[in-house]
Structures are given as C-alpha cells and as structure tokens.
Write a structure and sequence with these properties.
Elements lengths: L16 H31 L21 E5 L10 H9 L4 E2 L8 H12 L6 E6 L2 H8 L6 E7 L10 H5 L16 E5 L7 E5 L4 H5 L5 H9 L4 E2 L17 E6 L7 H11 L2 E5 L5 H4 L1 H14 L2
Helix pairs in contact: 2-10, 3-4
Length: 304
Amino acid sequence: MSGFGNPSSANGSHEGESHVKCRRHLGLIVLATTAAVALTAGCTSSSSHVPASSGHAPAGGPSHVATPTIVLVHGAWADASSWAEVTERLQKRGFTVLAPPNTLRGVATDTANLRAYLQTLTGPVVLAGHSYGGFVISNAATGIANIKALVYIDAFIPDKGETVGQLSAAQPGSVLAVPDPSTVFNTVPIPGGNGDVDLYVKPKLFPGFFAAGVPLNKSDVLAAGQRPFAASTLTEPSGVPAWKTIPSWALIGTADKVIPPAEQKIMTARAGSHTVSVNAPHLSMVSNPDAVTDVVISAVQGSD
C-alpha cells in the first residue's frame, strides 16, 4: 500500500467537519478497494502461471464477453507437457489455459479426479482431451452445465460400456493391439494393486509409435519421461458420455498408429463432431500444434 498516504492527512485546516468525514470515508473506500484488488491478483498469481481472463475477447478469439477457460487433458504415457506448444499458442491469443494432471489410474478414478477439478471452475469451459484423455473428458464432463464444448485430439470418444482395449482393436492398425503385450510394454507391479501392473511403452518403440515425424531428440525425451498407465484401465468400461449433450470438435491425425484413423472417423461421426484431418502422428499436439490450436479455437468460437 506504499502508493497511498493517510486518507486524513490531506484535510486542510479550513475544511468543515462534513467535508472531513466525506474525505475520510472516500479514503477508506479507496484503501479497501485497493486491498481487494491486490488480494485477488495475489491469489491468481499463486494458483496459475497463465493470464487470467480479463472479461474481454482475446485476439482471434470469440466476440462475446465471457471468454471460456480452456482445459487440456493429456493421455496415457504422457503428462501436461505434451500440450506445451498448444498451451503457449493459446496463451498468446489471450486465453486462460489449464492443463491438470491425468492420474492414469483407471477410468473411474481419473474421471472423479478431473470432475472434482472442473467443478472448481466458474464461467464457461472448453474441455479438450488427447488419446485416452478422450475417455476421461467424455465421462468427467457429463452433467456439468458450464462445459460448453468438448475437443478430441487423436482421441477415443467412447460410448457407454466401451473400453480402451475394445476401441483400440475395433479397427486394424493399432500398434498397441498385439497378441503378446510384452513385445510392446515394460511392466512394473503396482504396490497394493492386487496384481495390477503399470505399463510403460518400450522406449525404443515410443518414437515410431507415437511421434513419427517428430524430431528424434524430442521424441526420445518424451519416451524417457512417459507416465505409466495402469493395465486394468484397458478393460474398465466407460460411463454415460458427455458428447451426447455437449457439442464436440475433433482432429484426426491420418498418420496415427495408436488409434487407427478409421476408428477415429467412426467415433467422430457417431458423436457428430466437427472434424478436421491433418497429416500427423498420434502426438499431433507436438508435431502440428498450429492445427490443434485452430481446432480448439474453433470450439471456443462455436460454443458462443
């Protein structure tokens, strides 16, 4: 408060009592307002490293006043850094972007965690998911009124009762749908997991499977930092999907080796998603961040 003096110090000796009271009252209002602004700014700074929405439409964004918060959900064997290029582009356009962790412990657990997070947000939200993140957003968004659009990036768009394993093998071509999983995955027992194991994609396979077209030095870094995926998640059924009541947008990478483009087309058609296709691998957010950013912004504009 160093920029504000004592509100009563400016009272001249010739002012009447009514003027003194008025000036003191005004000074208290100024100080209270300043404190509230400072407190709000401090809370925003500590809870997020992204710019808060100013209430005005960002450059290239929608024309309405209430600009949606954009929430980005990563998939299996990844973390929020997989969205880094898209996050940066959206922030430069003035959007508030959040990329919470996806725990990769199972459909029900991951859904509950994301749902709890979403319920803390006020104002409109556009929710995007990559790969397995599509399972999580489809379940977590159901029944939340302020989620205005869903965005699926090389993602599963499950219906009720469907599983990751089922959809992975629904059309031929997925490098993960193999007779012997040990040829693709390294496994680590989950302590107290009743026999469940964590799956890691073998590092030597990761670049070709997930990131063909991404520079090898970058894909090797992603392989080294992959987060494990609980094997039991592959057979856990999805719940009632949000895409039946919330409009959706989608991007299909035509070079995707993890979720076959043929299956993605079936899922996007079923959901009625506004869909674009690009020549990209499964990690299109890394290889084609401009295209992914454009789809997210289209969802923002279309949710107005």
